[in-house]
């Protein structure tokens, strides 16, 4: 098992259309200029004005008291569970949740927490499913401490949890004395798609964070929000995990730029994803899930070609796709245009004909 990411093979053609992930967006020239102009200080000592400006803005956006700037979304999730829970506690989440599938077992390794996996279509569980898994309290049962949701649900196909479902889940959690956490890696995609403000989406949740390195196009950074007391405790974990930064404002400036210029345009990514899904649905043998946001999952096996085989063929034509949960994932973002979607569909048509 090789743990370090592998460099691409030297003979692979350059990637012309990158649908691999919205994490692969590059900072625009205007974003880089905003970074160059940023006022900087020592973030770890509390005197980087640009980091403070970002945290104040994020707390207001999410309707929470306070916020902390983190190097990554994963660190937001890890610092949040470490702050909410104690060793031996149980976290309730969907079986496909990022905290369960994609964080290297961090919540067990660092916190000593177990995660109870709930089921449900498209990465979402229902209020009834949650209610059915609330344990009676006894010395035999693990202490249930936290309910986690992912908005949008990544492996669920970028699905948007309806606000009513989020509210019902939060109400059940409160009724049973459980804390609530929202992994909002792509929260702004959900807000733009549903036309619901972030503070409404997150209203029932004790902690919530947003990733700036997905569709928002910043080079790094995520912001975790909650009560002043929660953020104060999360800061201790940020320090312990090595996430306290120095002139972090250079990156916070990119995040502020993204809030001003890259939120409304997420609607373009959603339109491009829908166009891609419509085109895919017309290819014989290809099964495609209708996208809510910017992630399109499809399965070409009905056309006589395996998912991994097709991803390899597309890569040799300069189109990068990813595999996630046994299906192909195409992700639209800042660096993907409508003509690129048309071209991708043409190349796919040829690649499938060769099957
Ligand atoms: C990407 C992602 C994360 C982790 O964010 P990083 O910034 O890559 O650490 C967590 N949750 C979800 C749903 C994600 O898509």
TrEMBL record:
Under the heading InterPro entries, the entry gives: ArAA_b-elim_lyase/Thr_aldolase (IPR001597), Low_specificity_L-TA-like (IPR023603), PyrdxlP-dep_Trfase (IPR015424), PyrdxlP-dep_Trfase_major (IPR015421), PyrdxlP-dep_Trfase_small (IPR015422)
Q: Which family does it belong to?
A: Belongs to the threonine aldolase family.
Q: Which GO terms describe its cellular component?
A: cytosol
Q: Which GO-annotated molecular functions does the record name?
A: L-allo-threonine aldolase activity
Q: Which organism is it from?
A: Falsiroseomonas bella
Q: Does the keyword Lyase apply?
A: yes
Cofactor entry: pyridoxal 5'-phosphate
Upper lineage: Bacteria, Pseudomonadati, Pseudomonadota, Alphaproteobacteria, Acetobacterales
The record, for PANTHER family, names: L-THREONINE ALDOLASE, L-THREONINE ALDOLASE-RELATED
**Assembly behavior:** Homotetramer.
Q: What is this protein called?
A: Low specificity L-threonine aldolase
Q: Name one GO biological process term.
A: L-threonine catabolic process
- Swiss-Prot/TrEMBL keywords: Lyase, Pyridoxal phosphate
Task: Specify the Aromatic amino acid beta-eliminating lyase/threonine aldolase domain's residue ranges.
Answer: 19-299
């Amino acid at each position: 098992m090789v743990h370090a990411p592998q460099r691409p093979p030297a003979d692979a053609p350059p990637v012309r259309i990158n649908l691999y992930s919205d994490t692969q967006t590059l900072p625009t020239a205007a974003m880089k200029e905003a970074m160059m102009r940023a006022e900087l200080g020592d973030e770890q000592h509390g005197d980087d004005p640009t980091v403070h400006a970002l945290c104040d803005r994020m707390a207001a956006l999410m309707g929470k008291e306070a916020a902390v700037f983190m190097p990554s979304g994963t660190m937001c999730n890890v610092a949040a569970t470490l702050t909410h829970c104690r060793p031996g506690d149980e976290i309730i989440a969907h079986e496909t949740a990022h905290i369960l599938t994609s964080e290297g077992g961090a919540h067990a390794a660092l916190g000593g927490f177990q995660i109870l996996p709930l089921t449900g279509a498209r990465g979402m569980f229902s209020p009834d499913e949650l209610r059915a898994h609330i344990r009676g309290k006894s010395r035999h049962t693990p202490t249930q401490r936290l309910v986690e949701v992912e908005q949008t649900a990544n492996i669920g196909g970028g699905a948007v949890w309806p606000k009513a479902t989020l509210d019902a889940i939060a109400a059940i959690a409160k009724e049973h004395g459980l804390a609530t956490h929202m992994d909002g890696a792509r929260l702004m995609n959900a807000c733009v798609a549903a036309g619901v403000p972030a503070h409404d989406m997150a209203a029932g949740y004790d902690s919530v964070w947003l990733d700036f390195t997905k569709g928002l196009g910043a080079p790094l950074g995520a912001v975790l929000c909650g009560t002043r007391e929660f953020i104060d405790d999360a800061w201790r974990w940020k320090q312990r995990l090595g996430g306290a930064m120095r002139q972090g404002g250079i990156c916070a400036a990119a995040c502020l730029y993204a809030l001003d210029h890259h939120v409304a345009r997420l609607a373009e990514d959603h339109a491009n994803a829908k166009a891609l899904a419509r085109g895919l649905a017309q290819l014989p043998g290809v099964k495609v899930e209708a996208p809510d946001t910017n992630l399109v999952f499809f399965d070409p096996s009905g056309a006589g070609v395996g998912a991994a085989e097709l991803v390899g063929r597309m890569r040799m034509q300069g189109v990068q796709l990813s595999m996630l949960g046994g299906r192909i994932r195409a992700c639209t973002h800042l660096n993907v245009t409508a003509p690129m979607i048309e071209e991708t569909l043409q190349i796919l048509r040829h690649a499938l004909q060769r099957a």
